[in-house]
Specification:
By secondary structure, this protein is α+β, with helices and mostly antiparallel strands. Among the domains are: about 100 residues, 3-Layer(aba) Sandwich (Rossmann fold), CATH 3.40.50.20; about 70 residues, Dna Ligase, domain 1, CATH 3.30.1490; about 100 residues, ATP-grasp fold, B domain (D-amino Acid Aminotransferase, Chain A, domain 1, 2-Layer Sandwich); about 120 residues, Glycoprotein, Type 4 Pilin (2-Layer Sandwich); about 70 residues, OB fold (Dihydrolipoamide Acetyltransferase, E2P) (Beta Barrel). About 30% of the residues lie in helices and about 30% in strands. It contains 17 helices and 40 strands. The strands form nine sheets. It has a nine-stranded antiparallel beta sheet. A hairpin with an 8-residue loop joins strand 7 and strand 8. Helix 4 packs antiparallel against helix 5, helix 7 crosses helix 8 and helix 12 packs antiparallel against helix 13.
Length: about 675
C-alpha cells in the first residue's frame, strides 16, 4: 500500500479523497493555486505545494507543475479527482514515466472512453445501443448546421473531451446550432484544452441514468447499481439518487451487464461510470463513459456501503476486489443535492464572494438515517470566479425513498449559507415538488416545471400558518426580553401585549399568544397551535416543534418582525399590534428602480464578446454579448426590439454584478 498520495485537484473532491486516505493511514499532498492558498483542502492535507496562478489553465491542468509537486514531495501515487486532469491520457502516461501510480484506469481505457467520438464507435462495435449522431470531427459552424439538419432537430452539440456539462448545448434550430457550436467549442478549449465537437440526436423526454462500474487489475469488473441523474440544469446535474425510481430489476441487470461488457472491452480497472439515456419505455442508449470518479458517487456509497475512493486506491496498489457481483446489494435509498454558488433568482447565474456564514447540518450515521456533507469550503472562505460553482454535496440516506426525501428536506432547512447567492431555496422547492416526489423525472424537469425561472416558493396554507405561529412565539420572546431590559433600567417592567397580527406572503393572521411550558397560538378562526421553541434573539436558526412535527427555520431579526426562510420560501414576516397592522395597510408600496433601458451584468464575470455596436437596432432574442464566469459562457440577449445607445464594456473587461454593460434608447 502507498505511504503518500498526491491529489491533483481542489475543493470538495480533494477533501473527500483526503478523508479516505487518512482513514487508511496514507499521508496526503495537496496542490493549490494563488486563489486556493487558504482553501480547505490545503488545510486538511499533510503537505501542500503551490502550482501557479488562479486560472486552471495555468495551474491545475498544467501537467509539468503537478509533476514538479510529485518530485518535491515523493508522492507514490496520484488521485486526479474529477475534471481537470482526471481523463487526460498524457497525464497518466507522464506519471508512469516517473514511476508514480495513477489512481484511475489504464491509459488505453482513458484514450478509448475519454474521447466521446471513439467511445461511441467502440460501444457500437460491442453491441451497445447508441444514440444516432455524427461521430466525425466538425470544423465550422456551417457544417454543424448541415449535420444538424441531416440528423433532425433537436440535436445535442457536445465536446469530445467534455464532461460535467461543459461544452454542451441543445439546438432546436439553425441559429441555435450555429451559436451552440461556437460556444461549445470555446468552453471545450477553455475547460479541457481540446475544442473538438460532435453532434448527436437529442432524445426528448429522456432520463439520465448511469451505472457505476468497478474493476481491478486481475480481470474482475462489477457494476454497483445505478444512479438517477435526471434533475439537470444547463446539462449540469443538480440532484441525484440511488437507486432510480424508474428502473425495474430486469432493466437494471441489462444496463449493468452492458456497462461491464463495455468496460471489459477496454480492460478497465478502477471506478468508472457508464452513462445512458433512457426513454419512457425503458429503452436505453449509451451516452458516454466517464473514466474517473463521478461527482455523485456518494449516493452509490450510501446504498452499497462501499467506499469507492478506498477501492480506487486499493486497485491502484494492485489489490484484488474483496467482493463479487453476487455480493452487491442495494440497501435503502440515497439522495444528493448539489449546493452551487449561484443565484436561483437570477436564472442560476454564478455568484462569488465571501462566505460570511457557512453552517451545514450536523452529519450523522444512524441505522434509520444518514446525513453526509461533502464540502471544500468553510465559513469566512472566498468563492472565486475561476472554478466550478459547486461548493458542497449534501446527501441523505434512509430505508426508503419517501424517508430519504424527508431527511433531505430537514437537512436543507438547517443548512445556513450567507454572503453569496446559492441554490438552497431551489433544492428545497424540488424536494417538495409533486412530480419529484412521485419520481416522474426527465432531464427536462427544471425547464418544464420552472419555465420562467425560479422566483421562490409560496408556502401552502397549512405550512404558512405554522410559520406564522412560530413567528408569533418568537415575537413574544423578543418582547419579553425587551420588557425585562427596560424594567432593569427603569425599575418598572412594561406589560407585554398578547394580541398580534402576523403578516406573511400577503396574508394576515390575527393571533393571541399565551405562554406556559409551550407557547399556545390562538388564531381568529378558533384553531390553536402549541409551539415548543428552541430560540433566543440572535440565533439564526429557530428549532420548533408543533404537535410533534419538528421544524427548522432560518431567522433574521427585522424591524417589526423577521426574515424567515423555510422549505424554499423567503418570507418577510411582520408581527405587529392590531393597530399598527391597520395603519400599515394604508402605507404606499415602494416601487423598484426602472432598469428597462439597461443591460445589467447578471453575475460577476468577464466580457468575452460584444455582438452589437452603438446605434444598432436589435430584435427580440438577438445576442448582445457573452459573459464568462466559472468556466461557463452566458449569452445575454435582447428582451425586445431596441436601439443600442451606449456600450460601457469591452471584451476582456471584468464586470461586477448589476454593472451596466450597455444602454438602450
Amino acid at each position: 500500500m502507498f505511504d503518500k498520495i498526491l491529489i491533483a485537484n481542489r475543493g470538495e473532491i480533494a477533501c473527500r479523497v483526503i478523508k479516505t486516505a487518512r482513514k487508511m493511514g496514507i499521508r496526503t499532498v495537496a496542490v493549490f493555486s494563488d486563489a486556493d492558498r487558504d482553501a480547505l483542502h490545503v488545510r486538511m492535507a499533510d503537505e501542500a505545494v503551490h502550482i501557479g496562478p488562479p486560472p486552471a489553465s495555468q495551474s491545475y491542468i498544467v501537467i509539468d507543475r503537478i509533476l514538479d509537486a510529485i518530485r518535491a514531495t515523493g508522492a507514490q501515487a496520484v488521485h486526479p479527482g474529477y475534471g481537470f486532469l482526471s481523463e487526460r491520457a498524457e497525464f497518466a502516461q507522464a506519471l508512469a514515466g516517473l514511476g508514480v501510480e495513477f489512481i484511475g484506469p489504464p491509459v488505453g481505457a482513458i484514450e478509448a472512453m475519454g474521447d466521446k467520438i471513439t467511445s461511441k464507435k467502440l460501444a457500437a462495435e460491442a453491441g451497445v445501443s447508441t444514440v444516432p449522431g455524427y461521430m466525425g470531427l466538425i470544423g465550422d459552424a456551417e457544417k454543424a448546421v448541415r449535420i444538424s439538419r441531416d440528423i433532425g432537430y433537436p440535436v445535442m452539440i457536445k465536446a469530445s473531451a467534455g464532461g460535467g456539462g461543459k461544452g454542451m448545448r441543445i439546438a432546436w434550430s439553425d441559429r441555435e446550432a450555429r451559436e451552440g457550436f461556437q460556444s461549445s467549442k470555446n468552453e471545450a478549449a477553455a475547460s479541457f484544452g481540446d475544442d473538438r465537437i460532435f453532434i448527436e440526436k437529442f432524445v426528448t423526454s429522456p432520463r439520465h441514468i448511469e451505472i457505476q462500474v468497478l474493476g481491478d487489475k486481475h480481470g474482475t469488473c462489477l457494476y454497483l447499481g445505478e444512479r438517477e441523474c435526471s434533475i439537470q440544469r444547463r446539462n449540469q446535474k443538480v440532484i441525484e439518487e440511488a437507486p432510480s425510481p424508474f428502473l425495474d430489476a430486469a432493466t437494471r441487470r441489462a444496463m449493468g451487464e452492458q456497462a461491464v461488457a463495455l468496460a471489459k472491452a477496454v480492460d478497465y480497472c478502477s471506478a468508472g461510470t457508464v452513462e445512458f439515456i433512457v426513454d419512457g419505455e425503458r429503452n436505453f442508449y449509451f451516452l458516454e463513459m466517464n473514466t474517473r470518479l463521478q461527482v455523485e458517487h456518494p449516493v452509490t456509497e450510501l446504498v452499497t456501503r462501499i467506499d469507492l475512493v478506498e477501492q480506487m486506491i486499493r486497485v491502484a496498489a494492485g489489490e484484488k476486489l474483496g467482493f463479487a457481483q453476487d455480493d452487491i446489494r442495494l440497501d435503502g435509498w440515497a439522495i444528493e443535492s448539489r449546493l452551487y454558488a449561484e443565484d436561483p433568482y437570477r436564472s442560476f447565474l454564478p455568484s462569488i464572494g465571501r462566505l460570511t456564514r457557512y453552517r451545514p447540518p450536523a452529519e450523522h450515521n444512524h441505522l434509520a438515517s444518514v446525513v453526509r456533507n461533502d464540502t471544500g469550503v468553510y465559513e469566512g472562505g472566498e468563492i472565486s470566479m475561476y472554478y466550478d460553482p459547486m461548493i458542497a454535496k449534501l446527501c441523505t440516506w434512509a430505508p426508503d425513498r419517501p424517508r430519504a426525501i424527508e431527511a433531505m428536506r430537514d437537512a436543507l432547512d438547517a443548512f445556513e449559507v450567507e454572503g453569496i447567492g446559492h441554490n438552497l431555496p431551489f433544492l428545497s422547492a424540488v424536494m417538495d415538488h409533486p412530480r419529484f416526489v412521485e419520481g416522474r423525472l426527465t432531464t427536462a424537469f427544471i425547464a418544464e416545471e420552472f419555465p420562467e425561472g425560479f422566483n421562490g416558493v409560496r408556502l401552502p396554507p397549512e405550512t404558512l400558518r405554522r410559520v406564522a405561529a412560530v413567528a408569533a412565539a418568537m415575537k413574544l420572546i423578543v418582547e419579553r426580553r425587551a420588557a425585562r431590559i427596560s424594567g432593569t433600567m427603569s425599575n418598572h417592567e412594561r406589560a407585554v401585549g398578547r394580541d398580534w397580527v402576523v403578516s406573511a406572503q400577503g396574508e394576515d393572521f390575527a393571533v393571541s399568544v399565551s405562554n406556559g411550558d409551550e407557547a399556545v397560538i390562538l388564531f381568529a378562526d378558533g384553531e390553536s397551535l402549541g409551539v415548543r421553541l428552541d430560540w433566543t434573539p440572535g440565533d439564526t436558526v429557530a428549532r420548533a416543534n408543533i404537535g410533534g412535527d419538528a421544524m427548522a427555520l432560518k431567522v433574521d431579526l427585522r424591524t417589526e418582525g423577521f426574515r424567515i426562510r423555510y422549505r424554499g420560501a423567503d418570507l418577510d414576516v411582520k408581527v405587529r399590534t392590531p393597530r399598527a397592522a391597520e395603519l400599515a395597510r394604508l402605507m404606499p408600496e415602494k416601487l423598484p428602480p426602472d432598469t428597462s433601458k439597461m443591460l445589467l451584468c447578471p453575475m460577476p464575470g468577464v466580457v468575452v464578446r460584444i455582438d452589437v455596436a452603438e446605434g444598432d437596432e436589435v430584435e427580440d432574442g438577438q445576442a448582445l454579448c457573452t459573459v464568462e464566469a466559472m468556466k461557463m459562457e452566458n449569452v445575454l440577449r435582447a428582451e425586445r426590439r431596441v436601439r443600442i445607445a451606449r456600450i460601457n464594456a469591452k471584451p476582456g473587461q471584468s464586470m461586477a454584478v448589476d454593472a451596466v454593460i450597455m444602454e438602450f434608447e
